[in-house]
Automatic annotation (TrEMBL):
Record InterPro entries: DUF2157 (IPR018677)
Region of interest (Disordered), residue spans: 400-424
Keywords in alphabetical order: Membrane, Transmembrane, Transmembrane helix
Protein name stated in the entry: DUF2157 domain-containing protein
Pfam families associated with the record: DUF2157 (PF09925)
Species the sequence originates in: Hymenobacter ruricola
TM spans (from-to): 40-61, 67-88, 95-114, 120-141, 169-186, 207-228, 248-267, 274-291, 311-335, 347-367, 373-390
Domain DUF2157 span(s) in chain numbering: 13-147
Amino acid sequence: MSRKFLETESPGWVTDGLISEAQRQQLLARYPAEVPAVGLLPLLGSVLVGLSALSVVAANWQGLPAVLRLALLLGSLLGAYGAGTYFLRRGNADLGHGLIGLGLLVFGAAIILVSQLYQLVGYDVSGLLAWVVAGVALSYVYGSRLLVLLTVVIGAGVQTYCVQALGSFSYATAVLVAAGLGYYWWRRPEVVSSTVLSTGLLWQAGLLVLALHAKITWFFVPAMAIYAAGDWQARGNGARALQGPPLVAAYLFMFGLATFGETDAYADVLRPPLLPYLGALGAVFALSVAGKRALGRLNTLLDWLLLLPGFYLPGGLPLAVATLVVLYAHAGSVLARAHRNQDSDQLTVGAVLFVAATAVAYFKLTWAFLDKSLFFLLGGVLLLSLSWYLRRRNAQTLAAAPPAPPVATPDDAAPEPPASTHNS
């Protein structure tokens, strides 16, 4: 909720008797006026001037003396950090954190350019690892979501370079991102930072599977370990934000199996040894269940339906039916939970998942024996009918929700004393 929204709407709440003027002032005090940011034109002008200077230096970089190159790099680094600190002290957090982030990027560029300047060993990742360390440290010092985002992206870039160019996986980089930023997330589980960190860790997990030349389904063991970490986070918004990317990955995988898994062509890619895979996934499942039970979230246990290993079934009709049943069951669990919690957003998500499962089932099971014109006609009618029904159920559920109780005002706290009947 923004202060501008409160300033616009709260007088009407006072007029309608929802809150008192004193409560309105208390609400406004909780959302202080934002410090005016630096104007957009001066900021863009500064960026353009900086890009101009950067292009001049880049064009003449090879012809500059080594000492001057180092001086330019060091001056740029100190200038970015100094300017960021200055604006932070002036109360302009957005610009200050942006300049600190620019300093972090300059630091990484300096590592690469100094390595080229002195022809350091090209297969040593220690310099890039120092870049990740700096990003994690700055994230803690300044507590900025922008720095967390940059550090996750830097970690992903360093790991990608290690796997593709060096042919190895940097476990140190993965541990720095997972442990360093993981502890940061645990203390500050913001929605944006949680989503960014979860996505970055999924990227690290995918690169690990690629580097080990393992079956791609091993990816879901670390992915669901990220999901299980969210089950132990007491703050619900941050927990669900961390769990979102793993669930999206699991759903897309199951959706792909339902759509394209009609043959055994993917068996060599998808089927790891049964007992080790089920043992590892089962251990993560037990950790997730323990967290859900401890924090009273067992109603989300059906999220694990998407991890049922249906790819061990033979291709064709058995696999198609099994994956469709899972998709329908998962969509139904989302809708049921949304109805219980009166959550309109989750109702919309559940409706979309249900319609998507119905579309896949329709295309997979009727394409072979229906005339194409009749196929599309019936499909359109079916999806429109489903959309109407789910929208109607959504409206009925929200209409049946009990109204919020009125807020007691100071004037309502105590009844007025009765009028005196004393005769003068």
